Amino acid sequence: MNELEAILGYHFKNKKLLQNALTHSSYANEVRGGITSNERLEFLGDSVLSVIVSDYIYKNYRSLPEGELTKLRASLVCEKSLCAFSRELELGRFLLLGHGEEKSGGRERDSILADAFEAVLAALYLDGGFEIARRHVMRFVLDELQHTDDEVFKDYKTALQEIIQRNPEETVRYILTDSSGPDHDKSFTVEVRLNSNVIGVGTGKNKKQAEQYAAKQALELMGAEI
Question: Of 101, 115, 118, 191, which is the active-site residue?
Answer without folding.
Answer: 118
